[in-house]
Sequence to fold (1508 residues):
Amino acid sequence: MNGRIRLGMVGGGRGAFIGAVHRRAALLDGMYELCAGALSSTPKKSLESGRDIGLPDDRIYESWEQMLEQELKLPEERRIEAVSVVTPNHLHYPVVKAFTEAGFHVICDKPLVHTSQEAEELVRLCEEKRTVCAVTYTYAGYPMVKQAADMVSSGVLGNITKVMVIYLQEWMLAADDKDLWRADPERSGISGAVADIGTHGEYLISLITGLQIDQLCAEASRALPGRQLEDGADILLRFTSGARGLITVSQACAGEENGLHVKVFGEKGSLSWQQENPNYLFYAPLGQPEQILKRGNDYLCASARSSSSLPHGHPEGFLEAFADIYRNAGKAILSSRGGVSGEKRGFPTVREGMRGVRFVEKVIESIKQDARWVKMD
Amino acid sequence: MNGRIRLGMVGGGRGAFIGAVHRRAALLDGMYELCAGALSSTPKKSLESGRDIGLPDDRIYESWEQMLEQELKLPEERRIEAVSVVTPNHLHYPVVKAFTEAGFHVICDKPLVHTSQEAEELVRLCEEKRTVCAVTYTYAGYPMVKQAADMVSSGVLGNITKVMVIYLQEWMLAADDKDLWRADPERSGISGAVADIGTHGEYLISLITGLQIDQLCAEASRALPGRQLEDGADILLRFTSGARGLITVSQACAGEENGLHVKVFGEKGSLSWQQENPNYLFYAPLGQPEQILKRGNDYLCASARSSSSLPHGHPEGFLEAFADIYRNAGKAILSSRGGVSGEKRGFPTVREGMRGVRFVEKVIESIKQDARWVKMD
Amino acid sequence: MNGRIRLGMVGGGRGAFIGAVHRRAALLDGMYELCAGALSSTPKKSLESGRDIGLPDDRIYESWEQMLEQELKLPEERRIEAVSVVTPNHLHYPVVKAFTEAGFHVICDKPLVHTSQEAEELVRLCEEKRTVCAVTYTYAGYPMVKQAADMVSSGVLGNITKVMVIYLQEWMLAADDKDLWRADPERSGISGAVADIGTHGEYLISLITGLQIDQLCAEASRALPGRQLEDGADILLRFTSGARGLITVSQACAGEENGLHVKVFGEKGSLSWQQENPNYLFYAPLGQPEQILKRGNDYLCASARSSSSLPHGHPEGFLEAFADIYRNAGKAILSSRGGVSGEKRGFPTVREGMRGVRFVEKVIESIKQDARWVKMD
Amino acid sequence: MNGRIRLGMVGGGRGAFIGAVHRRAALLDGMYELCAGALSSTPKKSLESGRDIGLPDDRIYESWEQMLEQELKLPEERRIEAVSVVTPNHLHYPVVKAFTEAGFHVICDKPLVHTSQEAEELVRLCEEKRTVCAVTYTYAGYPMVKQAADMVSSGVLGNITKVMVIYLQEWMLAADDKDLWRADPERSGISGAVADIGTHGEYLISLITGLQIDQLCAEASRALPGRQLEDGADILLRFTSGARGLITVSQACAGEENGLHVKVFGEKGSLSWQQENPNYLFYAPLGQPEQILKRGNDYLCASARSSSSLPHGHPEGFLEAFADIYRNAGKAILSSRGGVSGEKRGFPTVREGMRGVRFVEKVIESIKQDARWVKMD
Fold:
């Protein structure tokens, strides 16, 4: 290894679950070292949060603007090379834009930004600056998701006829919206559950099947009266191939923790994967016994095998999936050190982030028209 | 027991799966005896089929019209009292109508008939004649479905917020439609999968939750080009209470056998039941560990307990659920022997059958309008 | 069908679970008709129980001795041909012996009798009289158990290296032994749990693998102090082939309903089957994905397919497994009507019943010697 | 945090699975930093392995003896404080002994050493030196195992009546013993599967139930002829409380990956946990529905909650369990920095390691006596 990637972090202070996940995922393989941070919106909390995780005081910043400014003053070999953006959604755009413009690589939580205009601007910018911009669609990092994608693309299922993503959570059911930035349109944008978890569905369908959405038709739901953003939606999909799809999401389903279930049906067989038991992929070949493919086995495809580090039977989880995104983004970052444009495969990029933003816009458009079919561009 | 119920059967000759199920279900408890049959559309096959199952030659008829005519000539104490109608769908209406008019009780396979006009006529007729008319929505007979209904009605889940029925089968995927009456609009009516299995979804939602559909919006799919009737549909539901629902059905999903899954979400908890493992009901109370309720236990409600005859741990299946419909219909038939109108609870009647027919009509109406919201009457 | 088999029943009066199961299983296929019964040990309860199930008063007997005597006086074409013996265990021997001596076929609940001397006598007698004597090791009737046996015998697993049967129930945990004939050595014989459920383990191992026990070594347990018979046992097995086995049973394990689990390991793969989800057989070929074989599919062996009457996805259960024993015994009975010795395959016979009795004796012998290895003869 | 713990590693070079796990587990929480290593038995491989993981050349040693000698020459604030011992088993004793004598803390893979004499010596030494010595019985680190222990100790199950550990793997089935140090008595000691995975069973039983083994009786198996050490064993247990237990292990069971299953039965309920789906604990209270307790929920005990860092529904796995051992050992190490003897709870110590060694000796003693009962001291 030619030296660890020096990483900064924006957001992810004390009590922020996803910030801690980003840090552990980055550090898991020893590919990154966390060097600097602007972890909170208040200077005091930023300082405390930075010290919590062992940052030296002179690399703990009061704001992301300060961090950007100061880091640029450091000699190149000390300066951070990449930044993790784990702020509330409404800050993704200015932060990613500023750091990308300054030539930093970015790993950004999803959804990328609020509008497709912003997203397009970021895509343009990353291309111009030749920087890596990864978006952490975590579930892309699970080995058995990679296996599913490999099986579909190699034709094991034949033509795909139907895809279902069911993604149910409970946490919005008993929540008080006043406490939640996710429930606030100012900070979350035009969409709640669709932006938060529906985008995972859109991304997984694309990743696993390669199908393109032609039209969609959506219905929203709100479990609590007066809630501003939808906490659930049913989204019917027509793909350009003629296949049909369904994404059902809710964040107000009692008893559901992080119940993401993907089912892909083809002419010759089907696949089923559940995030809460991620080490297994169920494959039902037409007319033959159903098979349980298990992580860590030699019979899996190369990408499933290489994205996994524990032997079979020793369960991996969410953290390893998250780390896989960091590892693959890291490889791209390392390959671009010499000024050479890095390889950008094996992880979700700003392009996929942009596609997700468009998906959200179209879903909300359909919802507003009382479930009218809306065409994707 | 004051004498077995004398049963005739129309349809269900050699090779007809559902006819055999009706017979075994009827006989399971010793409540019925099968006395007569017009089991097939050809005299020769009728005769052979009748002999197969031990009917005396003089009670094997060449047609249902002949059976009706001849049975009426027999003395009342020998004559059949009830008839099972297990023909292709398009014959349900004339057969049920004729036997009901003649005062016979009827147990009819689902869907009841093809049009709501026909259905209304049958409802009227059954009321006039005071006969029992059961429709075999089999899944109503599973003890754990009864338990689910009991838990919802007793308020365990609080207000219901969302209901999902996913019902997936495979058998239409590789089928040649020329061989299948179910694929033929002449014999199946305006709908394929929605009429065949979507109606189970509609019935289960109503049975378990008591919710009434206000509007629906539906999208159909066909896995094979040129197929006349839909083999799948996604149906979005708005209930009068404000709750939302989703029924997803397909009969062309590789690897799915009879995959019926019902999920009911309320403010205070949720229920989940899968037909292929019917002895278990999963109950997730908000903030508490999920529970697995198991058939045959004392902690279940009275109707779940009484509809089950084996001790816990000794799995019951589809046959017992089917028999439960026959048993409860049989109780109603027995109670009406004295000319007293029988109790008609505990099993799906012609009224529920009618509701199912209307549901199919509305779904097809929405599909034809490209997923427009359609109001239930 | 050349006329139903006329069946009598000894034992199985009101409240007796297993008697009702025998009756329903016998009647399920229409192969038997129940004509006579001595259902209880008291005349009054016998009469009431007989009427409950629709027997005519003149075929309801006060005792099995009376039934035997009176039935023999009936003309052959009315007389019962076979008798189900579902009494407490200690009555199996005299009843089976008397009816066999008189030339009746017998279907006897398990365990067959209390001592191997008695068992040998019955084997001898059945051979002499050329009568059918089936022993209802129910689990032999499950299609997926037949599939397992077929796969082992056809060499799919290679040489068998290890077999495990875990069979756990709860019902003895909170029981008062005074109320239970199973807890009483006078009526149950020398063994409790081993005789009641350990014998199922022994039979399943033999049925599925064909392995012969060479030596065994056993340890008993009692969950309640003062209990006379063991309510659990761990039985180590050495087979003549060199393979090893383990049977663990308990009837005092909180939370266990009828938790019978069989695992068979071979050089080339393994099988796993659980009674509480009997429609599935798990097959793990070495180095390949695990497979779930499901009842009702064309890819199963002939005996698994023919012992099953519902299509895949429509779950069958304990009742159908029980009925399979009756059906196969019935075929043997029918084939012997002409005086020709019947085919006696496809169901457990008096020979397997005898082997089970010997197994119990050897297990108890090992237990009494503080887990000394004991050789099977 | 007052500075990371400076860690050295002995063993765990290229290709060694468990070494990599130790490193990732140590680094996961940022509590340790890896500063030095003697990773292989050959200087060249040691150097390459050290560079692979980013160690500076001057802290990569050719042997553990060299590492011990050189590190002691470094100033205290640079010198390692603790050492991970992940060599083949036969080297545990000299390495742990030497580093403990020199005052270093130790985290040692299991089994601790080969003989109880060696183990006793290490216990004595650790007490004398007041050093931390953790033994990585990984499964102790799973939150749901902690939950199980908490439920038993708080009396939820009442008196424990029976405990079962079934631990099955496949990897020895097709192995060539010549390639495996685990199959070689010189390097593995007197036992194969019992030492390797049986000790996990012994430890888990003790951890969860607190029961003490009074006597044991064991039978060994070898799937391959000529194999020197056992690859499987069935171990019957009598606890001092009168409860009974069973540990069944095999490393030659086709289709089993790391199938560790623990079942604990008490008078008032039971628990069941499976390592391959570690986020769930099944609890069956007597006479009530079974419950599924899920990691990450507020209803869990304090130790289960605090040992887990991801929210519910985001699966954790083996790595987090491993990291939990390091974290708790790390807390003890940190608390002893001031010369104060550290807290030594929450992780398996040299004492538990010693108990495991004795367990192995007794099991082998019983096996050699043809399954004679042997008393634990």
About this structure: Residues 5-139+323-350 of chain C form a domain with the Rossmann fold fold (CATH 3.40.50.720). The first strand of chain C starts at residue 5 and ends at 10.
